[in-house]
Amino acid sequence: MFPAVVLTVFLVYPLIRLASIAVSSQTLTALASSTLWKVVLLASGQAVLSVMLSLAIGIPIARVLFNYQFPGRGFMLALVTVPFVLPTVVVALGFRSLFGSAISNGLLLVVLAHAYINIAVVVRLVGAQWSTLDRRMEVTAATLGATPFHVFRTVTLPALRNSIVVAASVVFIFSFSSLGIVVVLGDGSTTRTLEQVLLRSTSVLLDFPTALAAATLQLLVVSLVFIFSARISRREPRAKVTLEREKIGTHKTTVAVGATVLIGAALVLAPIASILWASVTSANGLTTGWWSGLWSTENARIGSPVGALGRSLALALGTAVIAALLGGAIAIAVMSKRGIVATLALIPLGVSAVTLGLGILLAFSRGPLDLRGTGVLIPITHALIAVPIVVAVATPSLRNVDPRRYFVALSLGAAPMRAWWTAFGTVFSGVMLAAGGLAAAVSLGEFGAASLLSRTDSPTVPVQIERLLSKPGESSFATAAVLSVILVILTMTLLAVVDRISTRKVLT
User: Fold this and answer.
1) Would strands 68-69 and 285-286 be described as parallel, antiparallel, or unpaired?
2) What is the extent of the structural domain holding 142?
3) What is the β-pairing status of strands 285-286 and 281-282?
4) Virtual CA dihedral for 413, 416, 422, 425, nearest 10 degrees?
5) What is the pTM for the complete model shown?
6) Which residue has the higher pLDDT, 273 or 63?
7) Which of 218, 251, 279 corresponds to the end of one domain?
């Protein structure tokens, strides 16, 4: 009951409130605007290019990591996942720092950044299916005289179709609804997205009909892509056989695997190394001045960097507590076969952060439920964004616990709550700690909802980074680089702690 009530109040009601306002003559007029549909076309074209480049980079890496056994494979698999968990504004700054004036802001830089972030999506989804394919079909085709390329095109590629479609859909949705990357790396004419229109219409122009029209169109496009992906991926299911990974044999294979690993590692590390270098260099050489300058009040007009760090950490802590409690309650409800709760918990996957933030702002900005001055709007929004991840972590671990432990405790005279805690408590506490860490990592890097909900004089770190990058001068860029390095360290530390908790407590 508790998770259903919370999700209804803070998720369903704001979206209903948003929908009720959207159904108006002004919004319908905005929906017919040629300017808005031009943005849809621009965002779709950019997203298609991002999908193509992501697949071109990710598929070869997936083949190597999921089909061959070699030293360092686990580390490489973890490394290619790093871009996906980094805050988008940090990735954007990394590419801006890496290419400098060699590539000006625009479509090419945006597509490169989107492909970089989504390498992990392609590698994980396509690689997982690739590792379970029966390779005897490939061997048979090769013995009949087919070239390696012909074998891949006629045998392997059709067998990977489902996973490729799913991966392409995820990359398309992310790129189509991108905000941080487009704000920092876009040129304002060829790389606009509906998420960007929504944020600008709400926070700058105060044009709510256009914002609602943009949110409606984005939700429609995302829903259509989800439906298309589901229909395509359900067709022609193929039998799978789990086989051991091949050992590197011939010299040619060794060179190909080694080259793929080295190129993949270089692609992942280059933007991160560029940010780190920018944080310790100036026009006069190496310096630590940018780090010590974080405590300076020189950037008072856009807020103190140290203040933004403290604010983001406080919001991340609040998000972790809310998401862990709510996610744990939802996981318990899902285990109890309460399907409505599971359905509600998945809604944030199909709604953008800015759209969700707009709904919450409209629902709780006046009347008896005015929460604007309480400071809880951002943690609540971030927690709702993180809830699907929390549930995905919590539910499988709880389901792996032998339920007979619960009945044994009951038979020994324990009260129902005591029996449940005896059976599930150890795993549940570990899962909640891990889930809280994941939610905190999401909060630290979230840009869209924070841009909409944070006060002008109280930015979070991602918002502060974007503001610094909008100002000319070496000092602003270097300060943004320092904040980005700190954000990377905090995010990766949280993920390392989550991984440690998961392996030590959840699996015991």
Assistant:
1) unpaired
2) 33-279
3) antiparallel
4) -170
5) 0.81
6) 273
7) 279
